[in-house]
Predict the 3D structure of the following.
Amino acid sequence: MRYALHTIDNELEYLPYKVNKEDVSNYKQLANKGIYQCPDCKANLIVKYGEERGMYFSHLHSEACMESKQTDRALTRYNKQNQRETKKHRAIMDIVYDELNAQSKINRHLSVEFGFRAKPNFKVIPDILLTIDQKEIALSFITNVNPSKDESLAKEIIKRHHYFIEQNLFPIWFIERKELAIEKEKNSIVLWEAEHTIASYTSEDREWENLLKELRPNPNFFKLYNYPLSPRLNKLETGSLYYLYDENDKIIVNIKRFLKDHNNRPYRAFLLHEGYSLSLADALSVTPENKLLLCDPHQELSNRKTFLDNHLELQKLEEDRNKNNKQSTPTVLISTSKNKKISSSKKTKMSNDLLYELLRVRIKINSHEKNLIQDYLEATGMEPIEVWKIVELYKCKSYKELENRLIGKKVID
Ligand SMILES: [Zn+2]
């Protein structure tokens, strides 16, 4: 894998790895016409083919320039670093490179390069280096992970992760795993040791973290989910992982978000949603604000709503159970959406902040509407939970609907 500048349009070109004989001779002829230049020393390049190396560019008489010798050494180190990766690794990299390269042609804030070319001096080389404005993002892909066997790999990946951070890169990992260890009945995901460290923290993870903070989780919170909380969870730290898999010859990214918990074996984390998938191209699209998207924002909003609804329902069920059935034997709590009736229990306490968060997610109130609700609560002395019940009971979809219901209620009272 070597690059050459195409002199006509000054574009970087690289040669496909596997080609048929006819293609090789086509490329050779083009090279002999002098159209390929070394991007470093600008010397004309020839095309060679080797069984193992595939098709590649070479300097005449193999007199490589300093820069290209350095790139060669980086490539050798990089290949060694990635020895364990499967053939799919290369295919994934090509897709990612092409996708980002296409975007960089229409977005001047963006540039993309293979890691061994962008950072030939690095001890550890990222697969792809994406630069958005001044921010350098190290994209790395790990294929064929088997968490129970790949212990030493985990340590290696953690080291690479820390190294990238030391070098002021922002690392993002994509993992292809044989299978995920999801314990549905415990609402948990058991992570591979490396995943605990290399999980990303994006703006969506921050949204989830804020939501959790509003819910003020204590051990009882996790009991609702049968989640085996570690005794040491003392800060709320969310994270996300991006899993790669094939579907109809396409590479798909499955996104999982969780609350980090156990920081030793088993690396269990509290799952925030079951995960959802999007195409690699969608995951890698750069937003107009020049941020790597890595999510489906609508899906995230809907997932937070589902999480909240489900959580409040579990809480209600638990309260009803405690109230009605004090002598009962412990029952297993099941998350269900059947019981939609509004509980008449007045014991439920809800903070104003939680109400605003719920309303923000459910009916997308803005800050002005939030102030109106705050005024309303102060003026009427109404409990936040009562407002939420009205939203649920009448399935309000907008602030206007809620306002009408609240006014209506005032008249009846
Ligand atoms: Zn050169």
Observations:
- The chain has three domains: 1-64, 83-297, 349-413.
